[in-house]
Design a protein that fits this description.
Helix content: 10-25%
Number of strands: 5
Number of helices: 2
Strand order of the largest sheet: 4-3-1-2-5
Distance between the termini: 29 Å
Radius of gyration: 13 Å
Shape: globular
Oligomer: single chain
Low-confidence stretches: none
Strand content: 25-35%
Number of domains: 1
Order of helices and strands: EEHEEHE
Structural class: alpha+beta
Mean pLDDT: 83
């Protein structure tokens, strides 16, 4: 299972964190587009291999070159709320 974690910091002193579970039947599922576009950082956690990587990191520029701090990621997992996807027309 793949879980995405989003950090939202727009106009807030403390960021909000959301989680989104990717659909297993689709390799193209990248999560909610609006949430991904406005997020400051996005982590991808693979529960089968227990590996974490950045998908997006506005602080460092290139997401692939930055190591994920395991202590920070644990706190993000605990603080994250489930993202409720609503379709807006």
């Amino acid at each position: 299972m793949i879980v995405l974690y989003y950090e939202m910091k727009q106009g807030r002193k403390t960021p909000e964190y959301f989680r989104y579970v990717k659909k297993m039947y689709s390799n193209l599922d990248i999560g909610p587009l609006r949430l991904g576009y406005t997020a400051t950082r996005i982590w991808e956690w693979n529960t089968e291999t227990d590996s974490v990587r950045y998908i997006k990191n506005r602080y460092s520029g290139l997401a692939e070159d930055v190591e994920v701090d395991p202590k920070e990621f644990l706190m993000i997992q605990l603080a994250a709320k489930e993202h409720k996807f609503t379709r807006q027309i």
